[in-house]
Design brief:
- The protein has three domains: 154 residues, Tetratricopeptide repeat domain (Serine Threonine Protein Phosphatase 5, Tetratricopeptide repeat, Alpha Horseshoe), CATH 1.25.40.10; 72 residues, no CATH class; 190 residues, Jelly Rolls.
- The protein is 51% helix and 13% strand.
- The protein has 19 helices and ten strands.
- Strands 1, 2, 3, 4, 5, 6, 7, 8, 9 and 10 form a ten-stranded antiparallel β-sheet that branches.
Length: 476
């Protein structure tokens, strides 16, 4: 089963006929056909046409909402799906789809209610049980998550996604053998389900079963798996093979951020360049500035920015990000899209600073600079860390350049509290002698760095908030 078909199956859409005038019936049947075949753009056009004609059918609004969700248009998707529910309040598929949308909007509690409603209406709805299990896991309700995920498997034993999800939950519980069995069952059901394969690969890696981890990652051939294979080869001490593989995929992976991060690490360790030319020494591409160089009244400006941010939704420790002990904007929100006056002005300051950054490094020969994004597309979010809050070491695999602006800082005290640490070490590889740099931020600081550079926030004991706006310059 392909990933595209798997996603459609999870969202759920119906292809039954219904009584409309003959010409429109042909149109909507064609729309359903396009949708089931994965021809999303043509299906969307026909759904739009049908809706614009004033005809109302819950399946059309629900299916169109699923398409809008896939395109990242979450607000529009929510409206369309809620219209389907308005037309047919007992429409379980729409309630489950609404849960998917609310999940991506960061409204986890609301998503939970939607999934529960879908299950109430259709108790044998395996996908809704599995989705509810995922939400409960993200909410930290692991025991209940396990119950609903197992129920999904009881209802649909050949459900590879549910088996993989169960493996993830069991891994958190430390039931590693059971987790392996679940991942393996998922793969048995769908050998092409790369999420399950990579989940099992990481499980093997964490247990030091590096040969098995490498076997799994090598079976996938994706950007993620190729990078993970290199990290596993390092754990196995097979350095020569690492260099050969990087050379073999140098053109394919020259903009693979995770692979570039590892390549920088191995270059520093072996004192020998690899064939990856994204950014061999990302620590040399750090850039520091401050808003006080841009604005006379920068402190008042920062206070106004913080006041504007107070009106933007944040969620506590959102799933699948590195923020711990703090709040962050949901992944769908871009602070720089349709932003307020002050935040828009802040964006213009960043864009000007980016021009200065590029001018500073434009003679460098690495592809990080030579293939510099021309569109200046910025994705921004903000993070509020509370006392003892921190961010684990990570990179931004979807970015090109990353940056952070400090709106409120904490005193460094002992052990570099609240500082940002840059390092070549990653979660799966490290060396005590690996280069690193620690920056103690001041209010108004602007810091730019390659997205392939690992960084973390060091926990702090001061009872105050640490507030930043982070952003990525996206690839073209």
């Amino acid at each position: 089963m392909t990933e595209k078909k798997k996603n459609q199956k999870q969202l759920g859409f119906e292809v039954k006929t219904f009584p409309v005038p003959y010409a429109l019936e042909e149109i909507i049947e064609q729309a359903f056909k396009f949708h089931s075949q994965g021809n999303i753009s043509e299906a969307a056009k026909l759904y739009q046409y049908f809706i614009n004609q004033g005809f109302k059918d819950q399946r059309v609004f629900s299916n169109y909402g699923a398409i809008l969700m896939g395109l990242g248009k979450l607000k529009e998707a929510e409206l369309s799906t809620r219209k389907a529910i308005e037309l047919k309040p007992d429409y379980a598929v729409a309630h489950s789809n609404l849960g998917n949308i609310l999940r991506d909007l960061g409204k986890l509690q609301d998503a939970e209610l939607s999934y529960r409603k879908a299950i109430e209406l259709k108790p044998d709805y395996a996908e809704a049980h599995s989705n509810l299990g995922n939400i409960l896991r993200d909410l930290g309700k692991l025991k209940e998550a396990e119950v609903f995920t197992r129920k999904a498997i009881d209802l649909k034993p050949d459900f590879p996604e549910a088996h993989s999800n169960l493996g993830t939950i069991l891994k958190v519980f430390g039931k590693l053998k059971e987790a392996e069995i679940s991942f393996s069952k998922s793969i048995e059901l769908d050998p092409g389900f790369t999420i399950a394969v990579m989940n099992r690969s990481q499980l093997f890696f964490d247990q030091g079963k590096f040969d098995l981890a490498l076997r799994d990652s090598d079976s996938c051939n994706t950007k993620l798996s190729r990078a993970c294979s290199l990290e596993t080869l390092y754990a196995l001490g097979r350095i020569d093979e690492i260099y050969k593989r990087i050379e073999t995929t140098s053109k394919l992976d020259n903009e693979n951020i995770r692979l570039a991060a590892f390549s920088s690490f191995i270059t520093a360790q072996e004192k020998k360049d690899t064939s990856n030319n994204f950014c061999r020494n990302p620590l040399s591409f750090l850039h520091f500035s401050n808003l006080k160089f841009q604005l006379k009244d920068y402190e008042d400006f920062i206070k106004e920015i913080i006041n504007e941010l107070a009106n933007i939704k944040t969620i506590w420790e959102p799933p699948q990000v590195t923020t711990r002990g703090g709040f962050q904007t949901p992944i769908h929100i871009n602070l720089f899209s349709n932003s307020s006056k002050k935040i828009s002005y802040l964006k213009s300051i960043i864009l000007n600073e980016l021009d200065s950054y590029y001018s500073k490094f434009e003679n460098e020969s690495c592809s990080y600079i030579q293939k510099w994004p021309s569109n200046k597309n910025l994705k921004a979010w903000h993070v509020i860390l509370k006392k003892q809050g921190y961010q684990t070491a990570h990179i931004h695999t979807s970015g090109w350049l990353s940056g952070v602006i400090y709106l409120k800082v904490v005193p460094p005290l002992d052990n570099d509290e609240g500082a940002i640490e840059f390092s070549l070490n990653g979660p799966n590889y490290s060396n005590l002698n690996s280069p690193q740099l620690i920056h103690h931020p001041e209010v108004g600081d602007i810091v730019f760095f390659p997205s392939s550079l690992h960084h973390r926030t060091i926990p702090f004991s001061t009872d105050t908030d640490r507030i930043v706006i982070a952003f990525d310059l996206m690839p073209n």
